UniProtKB/TrEMBL annotation:
Residues 196-342 form the Transposase IS66 central domain. Residues 138-182 form the Transposase IS66 zinc-finger binding domain. Residues 60-130 form the Transposase TnpC homeodomain domain. It comes from Escherichia coli. InterPro entries: Transposase-related (IPR052344), Transposase_IS66_central (IPR004291), Transposase_TnpC_homeodom (IPR024463), Znf_dom_IS66 (IPR024474). Residues 95-109 have a biased composition (Basic and acidic residues). The lineage of its organism: Bacteria, Pseudomonadati, Pseudomonadota, Gammaproteobacteria, Enterobacterales. Residues 95-125 are annotated as: Disordered. It comes from the Bacteria. This is Transposase.
Length: 348
């Protein structure tokens, strides 16, 4: 056999040996990948089982908190307050554990250059602007010492809160006496929302907005004012609310007449828990809602809602509310409306 063929055979044997070694390494890598995949699948199954367990515990705690809150609203027990706080703390810990097992806390940070740019909406144009103009510290060029010329501005806006502040308005009515007789004149006293009251219209509006729009109880508002250095008791705030309700009676009456002066009214009632003085348990009152809205039939009349409260759900209450109404009443199947069906002025 010639030397040429011997060299060729040796080269082929070397290639076969290298391919066999490469196949052996790939088999080892494949085996390692399979072992890693099996381990990850097992870890994933354990994590999913843990997440499901935590989610069941979270739902149980939420239901328990909701039950305790309903009980707390009726009794105001300090023991129940502590139980609610403990359950909420446990719920928060469970949610954090669930986030940790699911990997929501350990997600890799996206590089800044790969993030999608967010188009921030401009701040409302109607808000007042306070301009802070910042001049460069350098009076000349830091590179060559040359004179600096105006080029423009780089602006950025920041939304800030101007907290409400209490102030005292002192009204001094000047008195003057006649130099020829004993006549004395003085400026008339300005009117006040509440006669002989210390609250101005802005403060009264703040209390009513906090109570009915922001759901701030009067005792919390009293604490807020106390932190501002003014002691306003809960009883005083309650008296202000009552006085404002009396002031709003003409508006309420006008709204009632407007809602009832139509051919169709929608109505429904909602239960509301009421804490009566001297009673340990909460009672269930009713908020009756009467809606006038004819926009779906092309009417240009503005929609309106009138509310009424009653301590119970007896049928006499809607009967009294709807006494001046003439038209069609859209309501549910509450039996209290049955007595209204006999009236000649109503079609239910």
């Amino acid at each position: 056999m010639s030397q040429k063929y011997l060299i060729r055979i040796a080269e082929l044997e070397r290639l076969l040996s290298e391919q066999a070694e490469a196949l052996r390494q790939k088999d080892q890598q494949l085996s390692l990948v399979e072992e890693t995949e099996a381990f990850l699948r097992s870890a994933l199954a354990r994590a999913e089982e843990k997440i499901e367990e935590d989610e069941r515990e979270i739902e149980h705690l939420r239901a328990q908190i909701e039950k305790l809150r309903r009980m707390l609203f009726g009794t105001r027990s300090e023991k129940l307050r502590r139980e609610v706080e403990l359950a909420e703390a446990l719920l928060k810990q469970r949610e954090q554990d669930s986030d940790r097992y699911s990997g929501r806390e350990d997600d890799p940070q996206v590089p800044r250059q790969l993030r999608q740019s967010r188009h921030r909406r401009p701040l409302p144009a109607h808000l007042p602007r306070e301009i802070h103009r910042l001049e460069p510290e350098e009076s000349c060029c830091p590179e060559c010492g040359g004179e600096l010329d105006y080029l423009g501005e780089v602006s950025a806006e920041q939304l800030e809160l101007v907290s409400s502040a209490l102030k005292v308005i002192r009204t001094e009515r000047v008195k003057k006496a006649c130099t020829k007789c004993d006549c004395i004149v003085e400026a008339p006293a300005p009117s006040r929302p509440i006669e002989r009251g210390i609250a101005g219209p802005g403060l009264l509006a703040r209390v009513l907005t906090g109570k009915y729009c922001e759901h701030l109880p009067l005792y919390r508002q009293s604490e807020i004012f106390a932190r501002q250095g003014v002691e306003l008791s809960r009883a005083l705030l309650s008296n202000w609310v009552d006085a404002c309700c009396q002031l709003m009676t003409p508006v309420n009456d006008a709204l009632y007449r407007y809602v009832m002066n139509t051919c169709k009214v929608h109505t429904d009632d909602t239960p509301v828990k009421v804490l009566a003085p001297g009673q340990k348990k909460a009672k269930t009152g009713r908020i009756w809602t009467y809606v006038r809205d004819d926009r779906n039939v092309g009417s240009s009349s503005p929609p309106a809602v009138w509310f009424a409260y009653s301590p119970n759900r007896q049928g006499k209450h809607p009967e009294q509310h709807l006494r001046p109404f003439r038209g069609i009443l859209q309501a549910d199947a509450f039996t209290g409306y049955d007595r209204l069906g006999d009236a000649a002025n109503l079609l239910i």
